[in-house]
Amino acid sequence: MGIVKKISSKLTRQFKYLRRKLAGRIGLLDTFFRSARGNRILIYHGVCQKEHTKFNTLFITEKMFEEHLQFYKKYFHVLSLDDFFNKRFNSEKFNICLTFDDGFANNYKYVLPLLEKYQMPATFFVTAVRKEGYNILWNDFLAISSFSGPKTFVFEDEVFHKNKHKTYISSKTKKTLSETLRAQGFDKKKQLMELLGPAETPENAFEIEDYWLQMTAEEIKQSAASGLITIGSHGFYHNDLAKIPTSDIAWELNASRSYLEDAIQKPVTQIAFPYGSYAAETISEAGKAGYEQLYATEFIHPEDHNNNQMRERMGVNPFITTHNQMYAIIKGKYD
Fold this sequence. Notes:
Blueprint: H1 2-25, H2 30-35, E1 38-44, E2 47-48, E3 60-61, H3 62-75, E4 76-78, H4 81-85, E5 94-101, H5 105-118, E6 122-126, H6 138-148, E7 152-155, E8 158-162, E9 168-170, H7 177-182, H8 186-196, H9 205-208, H10 217-225, E10 229-233, H11 246-264, E11 270-272, H12 280-288, E12 293-296, E13 310-312, E14 314-315, H13 322-331
Parallel strand pairs: 1-5, 1-14, 2-3, 4-5, 5-6, 6-10, 11-12, 12-13
Antiparallel strand pairs: 7-8, 8-9
Helix pairs in contact: 3-5, 6-8, 11-12
């Protein structure tokens, strides 16, 4: 019965999306979009040319992103994160703010030119791994290595094997390698990266760099100089700031801010917690480090709703059409 309900639920959802897609195409949702009021902060990640979910299921194509911008231009009011934080909303439209996590070079390559074309502001939340000589985040390294890496290997006396979904699973704990590493500091992640070797092989490095390459300090600087982009922190190593020791949290927050401020020669007072994950210590240390605006996905404590420094954000769904995405933004949830 459980399987039947699951299939029925999936089919119902697919029918809703199809019906909404068709209604949007023939203009039946136009009044709904124009009359919508409210506000939402959106989370994008990477933007690429094709096969957007090949390595990372949070990516969208450049074509889809431009469709989103055209829709925003027609129906919504797009404002900067500072304006959003200070509630400088347009009362005659639905208000949205665009944010991009992880600091991908594709944000500079594809996103910035489109934002300039449509004259829309956004915030790039960037890590500081470039300062340590890395041009890839550990989780992107792992995603790409799951395609090109060995079927089985031993790490920390634990055997990991690649399943049919190209995901490394522990034979001992049955946890994914990603889950295992996320609970660790960067030293363990570094050891894993050294064990598996280069994530991108010489023959396909250029071809797949849109999926993993991090922005350089110069690209961060030029993004900030555009006048449309605000630069915020996304941690130093892209560690989970709810799982590492408090002393490490403090170091990451301060070192990340220092790196970004050196790059753009402007104050950096905004941070988006990697994975949207945080704890009470994370909030406390962020305040001590000089961050004034803290961004999560969903609040995890009731009192967080009363914290004037914090805001929630909503992730974009790469698997649905533009009309369905815009409908979900207004409703604040996915069907």
